[in-house]
Amino acid sequence: MGAGIVRFARLLLVIVGTGFALAACGSVIDADQARLCRAVVPALHDADVEIVETAITPVTGAPHALKFSYRARRGTSASPHWLICSFASGTSIGRFDLVAVDTDRGSLSDIKLFFLKRWWLQDAAPEPARRPIFTLGARSSYWLQQALNGIVMAGVYGLIATGFSLVYGLLGRINLAFGEIAVIGGSYMLVVVGIVADSGRLSPATLTLALLAGMAGAGLLSWIIGRSVVLPLTTRSKSPQPVLIATTALAIVLAEGLRLTAPDRLNWFPALLNRPIYIAGQDGFIATATPAQLLGAGLSFTGASILLALVAFSSFGRAWRAYSQDPLMAALLGVPVPTLRAATFIVSGAAAGLAGTIVVLAYGTISPGDGLAITLKALISAVIGGIGSVPGAFLGAALVAAVETVWSSAFDIVYRDVVIYVLLVGFLVLRPGGLLNRAAPSPREF
Predict the structure, then answer these.
(1) Which tens digits make up the pLDDT trace of 330-343?
(2) DSSP 272
C-alpha cells in the first residue's frame, strides 16, 4: 500500500511538471506586464506603421524585465526591432510600475518615460480581439463559454468531494474542514510563489514546486486533523455528531487564522498565462479561455483520473475497499489499518490541496471566506453522487457544476444556491443513496 502511494505521488509530480512545461513553453510571462509592454510599441512609431509581434520573452539576469521583439511594417517594407520593458517588481502593485524602456535605438529618457506613462499608457485601448479558432453561432458560442467556465469548478468540487467520500467510506464520518484545508493548500502555494517572485522570475519548475507545496501542506494538515481529532472522536463515540461539531470548529479556527495572517503574505497570484485564447464564435460573441484556466481544468481532471485509478487498481485502493465493506474481516486478513487510515487522510487532504491550488491558478487567489462555500458544494456533490463512492463524488460534482452554470446563464443568479440546496433535498428524499445508490433505501443520518 505504501508503494502505491509513492507511485501515485511520482505520477502526479510528472504530470504536474509536464503540464506547466507545456503550458509555459520554458518561461512564464506576466500577462499584465506583457500587455503594458505591447502598448508601449505604438508610441515609438508613426500612426501608419503596422506592428507585427514576433516574440516576447524574459530577459536573462533581469527577473522583472521583458523583451518584446517585433517588425515595423510600412507599405511593402518591414524592419525588425526590439524593446525591453523593466518593472519595479514581480509581485504586488510594483508589477504595474514601468521603470525603464530600452530599445534597439537607445533608452527612453526619464521625461519621455514620464510622458509615456502619464498620457499614453493610461489611455491605451485594450488589446483587440483576435480571430477565433472556430466559427460558431453566437448562441452556441455563449453556451460553450458557460461550459468552459464550469469545467474548473466541476474539477474543484470533485476533488474535495473525493476527500469526503474517502474518509466517509472508511470511517462513516464527515470532516467539515475540507474546504478550509483546500484554502490552506492554495495559501501555501501563494506563499511559495511570493518567496520565489522576490528572488527572481517564476518558471515552470518553481510553479510546480509551489503547487506541490500546497498539496503537501494540505495533506499533512489533513493527517494531523484525522489523527488528533477525527479518529479519537470516532473511537469514543458511535454518533457522528462529535466529529461534525469538532471539524466545524476547526474550520472556523483555520479560516480566522488565515484571515488574521493575510496581510503578512502575498494574496494574489501574478497574472501568468492569462492572455485569452479566442476559441469559437464570430462578431456577435466569441468564447474565450485563458491558458491558466485550461491548465487548471486539465490538472483537476488529471488528479481525478489518478484518484480513480488509485482506488480501483492500487494496493491502497484494494485495502480501502476491503475495509469500507467489512472492517473486522479486513483487519483479520492482514490489512494494516493504522497505515490505511493515515494514507486515506493524506490522499484526501492532498486532493483538497490540489483543488485549492487550482482555484489560485485559474482565478488568481483564494480567501478564507471561500472555505465554507466550497465545503457545502463539495459535500452536496458527494451526497448526490453517493457518499462513500469515489466515482460518485465526481459524478455529483459534474451535476452540481452543470446546474450552477446553466442556472447562472439563463436565470437570476441570486437563486442559484437555492436551486442547489433544493436539488440536495430532492436526492435525499427520492434517492438517498445518490446517483450510484450507495446507501440503503432510507434517509441518511448526518
Answers:
(1) 888 888 999 999 99
(2) B
Give strand ranges (E) for 152-291: 277-281, 286-289
**84 and 102 Cβ atoms separated by less than 8 Å:** yes
Side by side, the strands of the sheet bearing 98-103 are 50-59, 62-74, 77-87, 98-103, 106-107
Q: Which three cell numbers stand for residue 167?
A: 474518509
Global pTM reads 0.77
- For residue 75, give every residue at least 6 positions away whose Cβ sits within 8 Å of its Cβ, in sequence order, or none: none
Comparing CA positions, the residue from 103, 98, 99, 64 lying closest to residue 83 is 103
What pLDDT does 10 receive? Answer: 53
Contacts of 111 (CB under 8 A, 6+ apart): none
Sign of CA dihedral 173, 213, 5, 393: positive
Across the range 65-70, mean pLDDT stands at 90
The mean of the pLDDT values for the chain is 83
Q: pLDDT tens digits for 365-375?
A: 888 878 888 89
Of 299, 99, 265, 280, nearest to 194 (Cα)?
A: 265
**Using CA of residue 13, residue 200, residue 188, residue 95, what is the dihedral sign?**
negative
Q: Is the pLDDT reported for residue 243 higher than 80?
A: yes
DSSP 274-334: -SPEEEEE-SS-EEEE-HHHHHHHHHHHHHHHHHHHHHHHSHHHHHHHHHHH-HHHHHHTT
Compute, in degrees rounded to 10, the torsion defined by CA atoms 35, 37, 41, 43.
90
Q: What percentage of the chain exceeds 90 in pLDDT?
A: 28
Q: How many helices (H) and strands (E) does the chain have?
A: 15, 8
Q: Length of the chain, please? A: 446
Burial class (CB in 10 A: 0-12, 13-18, 19+), 321: middle
**Alpha carbon of 312 to those of 308, 391, 399: distances in Å?**
6, 10, 22
C-alpha of 160 from chain center: 12
Q: What pLDDT was estimated at residue 57?
A: 83
Q: Report pLDDT for 91.
A: 67
